[in-house]
Amino acid sequence: MPLIAKELSALDVKRLTHPGRGRNVTFPVGGVSGLSLQITPSGARSWLLRVRIGNKRREIGLGGYPDVTLAQARDRARETKDKIRNGIDPVEERKAARAALVTAQRRGLSFDDAVDRYLAAKLDAHKNPKHRQQWRNTLTQYALPELGPMMVQDITVQDVLRVLEPIWRDKTETASRLRGRIEAVLSWATVAGHRNGDNPARWRGNLKELLPAASKVKKGDNQPAVQIDDAPRWFAALRARDGMGSRALEFAALCASRSQEVRGALWEEIDLEQGLWIIPAERMKMDREHRVPLSDAALTLLRVLPRFENNPLVFPAPRGGEMSDMTLSAAMKRLHKADVDVGGPGFVDRASKRPAVPHGLRSTFRDWIAERTKYPGEMAEVALAHKISSAVEASYRRGDMVDKRREMMAAWADYLTGRNRVGTKVLRIK
């Protein structure tokens, strides 16, 4: 009959020491047959369970002491013996689990790393460093706090919703772009072999059933715009101000262009003789070259601007780099405040009553086209470089109507400068 080890207490185990010579020594602790404490010459301690599995003798490690207490070691020993009685080899089970973990780690990829690798793989599609930075900034601000550390194969629809829902109604356009970017990263991860199954950020047949359409809630996301009747007064106040920021804002208003397009404008993009500004595709939101016919007012502005040696920017910042978006926003705020300070109403949006912002000038232009002129709406959409809404419309808009738009932009400049305050009489161009 085998000897039964004396059951030691926690204090007894704590007092056990290495004799000071030889190799590792073991001390049976009782409570579970085969359980002992191993002590190395250096004093390190760990739990061992000696058992027979089939025809093999095994020594199974149960963890180090004191991280694993005596009571915990006895519980682990009993669980291990239960597995053996049920025909499970704990050693082989552990090896298989470790191999599966290594395989998973090799195949696994966090969403944060997937974003970096996606952008690296898609450099040709994102040649503009600022475009790549916008991608990264949007994901960093909204997606990475939730999805960043997650493995891409573990991301579900609920995880994507957790990112989108807080901003879907208040920042609809941003949220819509964010969804598309998450979908693109996860699609790349699937093709690259890092995840399987449906894309949880897909819209059709997926998030479409859980979120309201962006077009239904986007109204709350509109940028405050200068009212049509206030536009000439606003433009006169702007022209009375000095500074490169004011000139950039003036040019943006005359061209109905986006802030980033104006701030990044290069002299090489502008043909003063032809009166044309050609913005390359990599600087456009829709990744398509955009031609802007320049009115006489816009050309006059450009001709009097100073040009700085070794600086290709049309509207550089004081230190020579690209002007920040805040510069134009600050110019708008100053115009509003100055008008209020002298007893005026300021320059506020008709619906929201919020002070107008630079991007809202594009809405002012679009409203002027719709309400005060007979120019075709699709021609205004081309001027604004908006995405074509349907295949039918696209078939009629293979060109960019640059010659027709030249007259429209001249009429807009006349309205802003006060040359046509009574009303713009424009015939529909066939």
UniProtKB/TrEMBL annotation:
Gene3D superfamilies: 1.10.150.130, Integrase, DNA-binding domain, Intergrase catalytic core. InterPro entries: CB, DNA_brk_join_enz, Integrase-like_cat_sf, Integrase_catalytic, Integrase_DNA-bd_sf, Integrase_DNA_bind_dom, Integrase_recombinase_N, Phage_int_M. The keyword DNA-binding applies. GO terms for biological process: DNA integration; DNA recombination. Residues 109-190 form the Core-binding (CB) domain. Keywords: DNA integration, DNA recombination, DNA-binding. Residues 221-409 form the Tyr recombinase domain. Signal peptide: none annotated. The keyword Iron does not apply. GO terms for molecular function: DNA binding. SUPFAM superfamilies: DNA breaking-rejoining enzymes. It comes from the Bacteria. Belongs to the 'phage' integrase family. This is DUF4102 domain-containing protein. It comes from Paenirhodobacter hankyongi.
